[in-house]
Records
---
Amino acid sequence: MLETVELRKVYKGKTAVDEVSLYLDHGESVGLIGPNGAGKSTTISMISSLLKPTSGDVRLNGKSVIKHPQEIRKVLGVVPQQIALYEELSSYENLKFFGHVYGLRGKALDMKIQQLLEMVGLRERQKELIKTYSGGMKRRINIAAALLHDPQIVIMDEPTVGIDPQSRNHILETVRLLNREKGTTVLYTSHYMEEVEQLCNRMYIMDHGRIIASGTKEELQRILSGEDTFLIQLNHQNPNLTSELLAMENVRQVEETSEGLKLIAAKNSRILSKIVQAAEGHQVQILNIHIQSPSLEDVFLHLTGRTLRD
Amino acid sequence: MNVFFKKDFLVYWRDRKEMLIAFILPLVLVVILGFALSGWVENSNENIEIKAALVMLDQSKEGLERFQYKLNSLPLTADEKTAISKAAEAFIPGAMLLDMLNSDETKGFLNITQLDEESALKQLNEEKVDAIILVPEGYTEAALNSLLLRKGGEAEITLTADTDSLNVQVLQNMLDSFLSDVNNQAALSSASRSYGGAEISGAEASLPLVGGMEQMEGVEMITSFQYFALAISIFFALSVSTTTASKSITEKREQVFMRILLAGTHPLRYLAGKAASTFCMSVLQLAVLLVISHFIYDLFPGKSLEFWIGLSFILIMLCLAIAALAALYTAMLFRMKDADVASGISFLLLIVFGIIGGNLVPIYILPDWAISLGNVTPNGLALSMLLQWIQGSSFDDLWQPVFYQAIFCVAIVGASVWIFPRRGRL
């Protein structure tokens, strides 16, 4: 349905997006994951025809979006990272304005607005000005504004940044509803790996402007199938212990987290006894050891050497 | 465009801080400046020092004699001839002009030197005088023939100047008023002769003889409250263009504009909405401020409907120029990478326009070059037009500056459309 072909964007000699090729099939929910500055927003701007790529193409049903931007604009809804709303207008007035901009009028527009307000759970507060809303409520209206014209494809750029859990759940439910019940194709970008895991059939991992991995959750986890992840809870952290563990044979990565040490080692490397010995040697007490199957966060860490929120 | 206009207008209206700045602050400033700087405006005629050369080629006495000689040869009754002759003796335009130019009322600001034509031109070229008033040979005879006998062509006094400075404008107004007064008196004189015969002619002599003072009273009539109510209102209306641009920064930064583009809307609709809302906002602001000022300070007492129509026309032209500027600033903002730089430029232009246009300081204290420069700004031009209008200018005097204002609007709108990213890409 929608694909990018070796999309590239260079700003003042710096490559922001480098040969990005991805595709979205009809009714799919696809995740685009990457840390800040990975090039996700630039890619989205090029897909949505707002930014002209330096090279490459974006195709909608085989037709170039670069040459015919109006084609994609009819079927695309974009939820930007910023709250793209007028603070001095109520949510109803905002939706009415954007509805008019999309060419909707009269009762059809009114009905659509009420339906969307119901969907995002803010029908009762539609007369209140946006500036009186919480961050989460604003984000919900931000989504509603992108759905006024019943788009076939929705791109959501970090729609849950900085909001309360209730609004976050509401947004995730809305995305599920859109994708699973209404068949809308979704491209979802986020810092939160668990959101992408919950919502998306497939995902692309992006870093430094390039797609570094892609596939279903299981396919991506298989990248780490040759590794075990240990979560070691200690009575206190000790940098010397961390260094010693990292120097051990078969240990690939050791990371200090708020819950303890996260250690990734080659599968079946039988290092558990060595870990216990090392802890004793540094007079650190092990409170708990948990062997995890690799998460997508681990995959990301493995591929980029940093966490998503670095 | 309508939907963009409604949205922008509503966004303005709901911004309480902006509304207070737009409607309350100007009124407060008018009070403060009206009292504090009243001397700068109301005594401005004391600061006016007009130097003019008078080239008098007309001989009034000989002109009167020739007129009376010609009168005697006309087929009129003896009574009629006597009445007209007496009227002519009491009504010699050349002498009246000299009286007016050398009267006590004008001495304070008008310095007249009588010169021959060549010396006068030399002094004008050397900028020793602002203008030359030339009274041609046979002026008195021609004027009396034209005014009292309705014979011959019009007698013409000419005013020659190199620049259209405030001094020259004042002098021109004085002469216009003088000639208008002479014509009125002649008309009264003719009417008197038609209905009253010879005795009435005595009354003519008691008619006010000093033309031009009427206009000078007009110059003095600009009160500090009138000046500052107009100047401050215009400045704050001009600031609406900058406010529009600053609101567009938010729309760009928060990706609202992106959302509008994605809806497939032509970008120029957005720009047109900005211009339309700025126009309406500035019209509303000027109307409210001037109406409130009028009722509080009694700005324009007893003015005719024609005066208010002219005033409204000048202000509407100004608002069109302000709307064009709003479009330009908005276009610049979207064209430039750093929106804050574009915003800074628009704010800087606002201040510069405000100063040289006479909105932030009285125009009377500015040097001539600044006044000339101010007259190419929409606010300066509007203020200058309004001051002339209050002083009694006619619609004919307004066409040239109004035409300039229209050219300014068209040029700025053209530049805005050219600059704005009309292909719908950021």
Note: DSSP finds eleven helices and 14 strands in chain A.
---
Amino acid sequence: MRPFDYYQPESFDEAFKLLTMPDKVVMPLAGSTDLIPMVRDERWSPDIVVDIKELPGLRDIKPVAGGPGCGVCEGECLYVGAAVRMSEIARSPLVNRHWGVLAQAAGAVGHEQVRNRATLGGNMGTASPAGDTLSALLVLEAEVLIQGAGGERCIPVTKFFLGPRKTALRPGEIIVAVLLPPLPEGSAGSYERLSRRRGADLALVGVSALAVPYAGGYQWRLALCAVAPTPIRVPEAEAVLSAGHDAVSLEQAAQLALAASHPIDDVRATAAYRREMVVRLTRRALQHVVEQLEH
Amino acid sequence: MKGNYVGQSLPRIDARTKVTGTAPYPGDFSMEGQLIMKVLFAGRPHARVVSIDTREAEQVPGCVAVFTAADVPVNEYGLQYPDQPVLCGPGGDKAGADIVRFVGDQVAVVVAETAAAAVQARELITVEYEDLPVVTDPRAALQPDAPRLHPPYPGITIHPELVYEGNIVSRHRIRRGDVDAAWANAAVIVETEYEIPGQEHAFLQPEAGLGYIDEEGRVTVVVSSQWAHEDRHEIAHALGLEEEQVRVIYPAIGGAFGGKEDMSVQIILALAAWKLRRPVKIVWSREESIVGHHKRHRVFARARWAADGEGQLLAAETKIVADAGAYTYTTNKVLGNLVLTVNGPYRIPNVKTEVLGVYTNNIPGGAFRGFGAPQGNFIAESQMNKLAEALGLDPVEFRLRNLVRAGEPMPWGKPLPDDARGLTDTLIAAAEAVGWRKSDTGWVAPRSAARPGDPPALQRGTGIALGVKNVGFSFGYQENAWAGIELRGDAEIAEARVYAASSDVGQGTRTVIRQMAAEALELPIEKVHVEATDTAITGSSGSCSASRMTFMIGNAIRGAAAAALEKWHDEERPAQADFTYLAPKTTQIDPETGYGHPNFSYGYVAVAAEIAVDTETGALHFPCLVCANDVGQAINPRMVEGQIEGGVIQGLGWATTENFIEKDGRPLTTTLSTYLIPTIADIPDEVQAIIIENAEQHGPWGARGMGEMPFIPVAAAVHHALRNATGIWYNRFPVTVERVLRGLKGK
């Protein structure tokens, strides 16, 4: 493994000085479950690695009243720091209060040892099409709080993922937190995923579904991962479900999810199998939400 | 026979060091002034090495040497037949040594002051290849126009089954009665084609080692493998040295499962240390390990079996083609066990079996827990479950009707050496544990009903399989094991030192050796110390494989203890004695009929599996796996349970998620994120280990071998359970989620 210099700054100023060092390959590190294997396999060659876990606020889970620069976050949002670990998210009473679909997705990442290291910000920064938490963030319409040497900005998560391992982060920027907008009482969500074995395996398909009470009915949101270059929302299916979630609409939504998917063939599974699983897992996720709504 | 120490679940002697992370594995050893070695693998499945230019590599600062074929004194290696070059390339006098035949063939080794320099130098080696036609399907390799992978065989008979005709490495046959005359009398005939996968060992610790010249001038390697004295022999042969000039030491070993029987880093480490007179260290990555060592044999089989209306077996005709990969390794011995297990432990009057091991350009097939028995067992037990179903008989009932009774001949013409009651005992124990019940009309299988809370897509089933396997290699080989004991003290024995070259691959052999020595010497166990496995201080105890070590070393310890105690009573101080145990005689099996007495002892085992199938996704879940194993006498029952649990879970991985994919001779699953062994989240909700103890007459304190047995029937039991859950016989595995679903869709 090629050696690198490791820093653990405690202030943003210090961090951004390191992250913008000229003529150096500098990479941020949070859980290191992705970075270390990539360096070991000589696919990444950082000169400097900046551990961001000790930066102020990066390990917080807390209710906040709106986010700086985030217009949509009116009322009480949930702030989840970028360096919060998956195991903490999965067990957090705050996350589980309204945003349980994210807790479910975080609890599906890797296995217990990985979840004890891997972070939400890392999962986002890696931007694997198969990242479990990403489709959950899409249906929660999260805002991404980003900071760089030039200041802070906030963008909707829908604009964050640009392609496999490509994000809207500019050089020297890091993810600070996500802000989860409030959800009304009576909302229900579900994350379904399938892999070749139960523990420590990438999702072949992941589906997040969420129903939010709205104007006497529900506004539905549906997102998929591992079936396209980025996690995707499926607005066509959402429209059908929001008009009424009877058995016919559920089936139609599952088919629309399929139409939106473009999975690949690889050593893990064929595209044909993944397509079939999109339909079945979407159906399951929707049914789980409906069961909660009827409860 | 239980004693003060035999039959007691004492803690392992290495438990503390392993749990605290201080146990020294080969990769943990370093010496002052050591060099780092890196291997240049062929990376292509079949090619002639036209030239190797190392000049640029040698200019890299820190690069000390680059060794190629021309540097290896006797450039050949092979446990059964030396058909593999140590390093592939031109410049030697060994015919065919300039050909690479699989991606993991070693072409050059670089030795440098640092790992970085070694890697850089390796990149600067220029190898000119002339690619040759590739054959990866052993059935295609049998065709007359298939590329021939090895030079013609010189024709000296080493083992009668090693035939080397075209690409055929080995042939085994059994001929008994007349199968062709039997079909007409059959009430049912079951004919099936099976495809049985290879398997990667995925031991925790990839290959690693340290080579140096010791204080007595011996070239010494600290490595992890399974038979120290065989390593020494192979190293001495390739380096053109006397065995006394070579020393092999085994420290803690992070698993082997047969995957460390053949040479990986042993010879090249010794070569570099001998030539450079400096310590040399190598540690393989996981990918190097997966490419660089052999796999379980892939097998293609066609089986046609028949039974009469009374539920008695009439005939079994089975033809098998096994993928030996690029080199012989232990193919002939693995397939020898396959031929003994492929007809099961059943009374079959008419048997016709043919087993071929065939060269291809895949990674070689070789030793892996069960050593051919799992493949044979899958075929036999699947045929039995299918025949029972065709006859409308319960599969337990059907087996009990057909099991060989004491003294009845097996398909090779001789009976099992004991009364084999373990077959019945293990079968019934496993069956009852998952709900089989005996009624007035015979055994009745449990009903696989839905349980409260089951989603509609879930289907449940239960399956069963029975297994048998020989203890030791035998087939005429005089099985032997050496042990030495030194008693120190004055009036009373203050200390006993036990010497044995047994490889502690994780099974706990050193703990068991200590227990058996304390028992034999009638000493408090605190006074007994087991010395290191080191060829400088021990004789050969043989390989830690074939479920043989406890049986063999236990007898050797008993002999050595008796001799040492006699000397002690004769006032010798210290009293030293050693003893080489020779197992009962066996014979080869006849190349045409299979007739013979190939083994002196067998182990018996049955597995029952409960499965739950998600019919919408193909995902499998196992509520319960039961393994009943006749171990004769558990020397350490807790460690026996550990072997059972580990064995059945490894078998479950082979049956379900472990999908080793090679395309055109190139492995695609060279990481543990693409090649999936079961995790803690994938194991059954419950693994029930049932220890049965029918004493083995020749075994120490009645013990018989058991290390491989629990693995053997798992795949067949899963296959049966899946059939009962889904109505489908898959006939090939691993039953990955995708394959399960394809089957459910009738594809």
Note: Residues 34-41+47-132+201-292 of chain B form a domain with the Aldehyde Oxidoreductase; domain 4 fold (CATH 3.30.365.10).
